[in-house]
Amino acid sequence: MINGFYSRLDFFRKGLEGLSKRHEVIANNIANVDTPGYKAKDVNFEQVLTRHLKNNKVDNPDVKQIKDRFNLFSIYEKAGLLDNTEGNNIDADKEMIALSENKMEYDLMVEALRSQLELYKIVIDSTKG
Fold this sequence. Notes:
Blueprint: H1 2-31, E1 41-43, H2 45-55, H3 63-70, E2 75-77, H4 92-127
Antiparallel strand pairs: 1-2
Helix pairs in contact: 1-3, 1-4, 2-3
């Protein structure tokens, strides 16, 4: 049980790190909206998380596997965006929407972590004599 506890905590920790990294990247995109030649970037968070969930049992993930797979977060240039006259491809409105969506995902993961910790607290309290 204790290994499952640490595995879940590591899962949430790395998930929050990935979403935090995406927040930084989106904020950087917004800050460079007027920078000539700047290309919008993103983080491969969903791909890494999906791969992890397909390869691990959610109820008892292997801590080492989580660390290895979550270390695969990378920043990449968004493809398929149209450049403006200065060679910049950032759409400020889309980036603001992405920032809001990322914040909601982060908040949901924090709430899931809080709920998980509350369940462990209930288990611990129930074992007290």
